[in-house]
Specification:
Serine Threonine Protein Phosphatase 5, Tetratricopeptide repeat; single chain; elongated; mainly alpha; three-stranded antiparallel β-sheet; 4 domains
Length: 386
């Protein structure tokens, strides 16, 4: 309860200063309020917040200058998870006829946050929409609406709200809006509406030409529609958009080139991206290809050469697989132990990591489940990554 004490002491001090500043009649009213302030404070310190609220709600009827106290208490209750008490305080504020327009709009915003915290999203949405319409606290209200629509997966409203927020605040929201279009496209794909999905994917690319997710969705959709040439164009666009995501296109590109009978072109492309970016995924695919065509020894030689420049746990694990097929019994026991260690390390490792909060995952998330940021989860780099 010390946080409440520190919150209310400046208010009490401010009340004394205001009393000295006003005329004698006001001074007598303020002096009559002092005992009630301390009585309310005493209730808070004794873990009786409902009685304290009753005291403070009575004070606002007498003196409008206690409004700031109520705002502070409402926010404090909400942050402590006592949302019902916060709602009660902010509803009481809005009911006061003497409240100034700016204070009323602030009370409306705080009440909207209360409802949002309580999961009453329809009520919160209504209040935030009213604030946007009245052009008061517009940017803050739009941000809260955007959070609500993401929570509800209402991507159409999320897109419109993000566009309004961009115009109101000049924030660079194109990458986020493109993600909303991608979410919408995935919903269309799940519904079997490939035409609407394709249109929405194009909207995402129009909004953000560097949207990797839109290219991946376009490629996957083209592959499902048995159009591998179109899929190849979409998948290879990823290199221009953000080459760190190239590991996501290696496998689907192999399928595409197999379908059109041009695997050698795929192998050539793998060599190019391996030379340019040094990722482990194309290295392993090439090693597997060499193994199929030229045998384990040539594949092992290729891996050893590559890993001198690019040490990799996954590369070591694959190399151990190759060596185990050719080792004698004495060496084999030691190699099997090392193989077991690498297998366990790979089994538990995170493949992706959020660049904003550090959240780690084994699958790609376009929105970080931890910090809720978009486009921040990327493949891990280094000896145990790409």
């Amino acid at each position: 309860m010390l946080d409440l004490l520190w919150l209310l002491l400046p208010v009490a001090a401010a009340s004394g200063w205001l009393a000295a500043r006003h005329h004698e009649q006001k001074k007598s009213i303020r002096s009559s309020l002092a005992p009630d302030y301390f009585k309310g404070l005493n209730y808070l310190l004794n873990e009786e917040p409902d009685k304290a609220i009753d005291i403070f709600l009575k004070l606002i009827e007498i003196d409008n200058e206690t409004v700031e106290t109520h705002f502070a208490l409402g926010v404090l209750f909400r942050r402590r998870g006592e949302v019902n008490r916060a709602i009660r305080i902010h509803q009481n504020l809005m009911a006061r006829q003497s409240l100034e327009p700016q204070q009323r709009s602030l009370a409306m915003f705080e009440l909207g946050e209360d409802y949002q915290s309580a999961g009453l999203l329809d009520r919160a949405e209504s209040l935030f929409q009213e604030l946007v319409t009245s052009n008061t606290h517009q940017v803050l209200a739009l941000r809260q609406l955007l959070e609500i629509y993401q929570q509800e997966h209402d991507w159409e409203k999320a897109i419109r709200t993000a566009q309004k927020l961009h115009h109101a605040s000049n924030e660079p929201l194109s990458p986020v809006i493109a993600q909303f279009y991608c979410e919408q496209a995935q919903d269309y794909i799940a519904q079997g509406n490939s035409h609407a999905a394709q249109q929405t994917i194009q909207q995402a690319l129009k909004t953000d030409s560097n949207c990797v997710r839109a290219s991946l969705l376009e490629g996957q959709l083209a592959l499902e529609q048995d159009n591998p040439k179109k899929a190849i164009i979409a998948f290879k666009r990823v290199e221009e958009q953000n080459p760190i995501y190239l590991i996501e296109v290696v496998e689907p590109l192999q399928i595409c080139y197999q379908k059109i009978g041009q695997l050698e072109k795929f192998i050539h492309y793998l060599h190019l991206i391996l030379e340019r970016y040094g990722s482990i995924t194309p290295m392993l695919v090439l090693a597997n290809r060499i193994k199929q065509q030229q045998g384990e020894q040539k594949a092992a030689d290729f891996l050893v050469k590559q890993m001198h420049n690019r040490p990799s746990l996954r590369g070591l694990d694959y190399l151990l697989d190759l060596v185990l097929t050719k080792s004698d019994c004495i060496t084999r026991d030691h190699l099997l132990l090392l193989k077991d260690v690498t297998k366990q390390l790979l089994k538990n490792r995170a493949i992706y990591k959020c660049r904003h909060c550090g959240f780690q995952a084994r699958k790609l998330h376009w929105q970080c489940p931890s910090c809720k940021q978009w486009n921040t989860v990327k493949p891990t780099q280094g000896i145990d990554g790409e």
